[in-house]
Amino acid sequence: MINVEHALGLDASHLCEAQDGHRLEVNTFSAFSAMQRSAAKDNIYINIASGYRDFARQKLIWDNKWRGLRPLYSKTGEPLDATTLTSEQKLHAILTWSALPGASRHHWGTDLDVYDKYAMARAGQTLQLIPQEYSEGGPCSALNKWLVTHAADFDFYMPYQNFTGGVSVEPWHLSYRPVAENMLSLLTLPALQALLDKQDIQGKAEVLNRLPMIYHRYILNKGISDREHQEVK
Length: 233
What we know:
Elements: H1 4-7, E1 15-17, E2 23-25, H2 26-41, E3 47-50, H3 55-67, E4 72-73, E5 79-80, H4 87-97, E6 111-115, H5 117-123, H6 141-150, E7 156-157, E8 173-176, H7 177-186, H8 189-197, H9 204-209, H10 211-219, H11 226-232
Antiparallel strand pairs: 1-2, 3-6, 4-5, 6-8, 7-8
C-alpha cells in the first residue's frame, strides 16, 4: 500500500525494474508495457527517457539550479542570467521547468518522460526534451499524436499538456492516473512543509515563505488566473 513517504520520494519499495535502468511503480509498468506493445503495432516506439527520481536526486537538481550550476530558462525557453534575478524571480524560473524536491511527480513511480529513440536516431538528433521535438515536423511528432489519441485507453494522461501559468508544457510527460491520483492526495501542503522544514535546500527561506503559492500554482498546477496573468505580463 502506498504511503506519504512514497509520495515525497523517500521510499522506493513500491517500484519495479522497468526498462533501460529506469524504475516504475508496479501497476504503472504493467500498463505502460501494454501501451508500448499496442503502439509498436502502429510502428510507434515508446521509450523511457526518465522514470522514478528520488528526493535526493531532485534536491541535487534544485540546488544546482539555484546556485547557477545548471541553466535557467524563461517560460518561453530562452536562457536566463541567474545573476540578474531576484530570489523570487529565480524561484519561478526554476519551478516552471523543475519540481521542488519532495513535490516531483517523478517521486511517485507513476510518471515518466517518453520519446521515440528510433525516430530521434533517424533525425540525427540528441534528445533534449523540448516541445519542438514533439510538435509538427519534430522527430517525436508521430509519437505525440499517437499518445494524444491512445494514452487514455491505458489510463495514462499528460498532466502538463497546457500552460496556465504554472509548469511549462511537457508533451513527453505521462502519468498513470489510477495510482498518481492517490499519490497526489497524499502530497498535502502540511506533509511537504514538514519535510522541507528538516531539509537543507537552496533558497529554503524563499521556498517556505511562498510554499502555499507554490503548492497551488505549480504542484497542483493550477497556474494563475486571467487577471493575475495580465498583471505578470
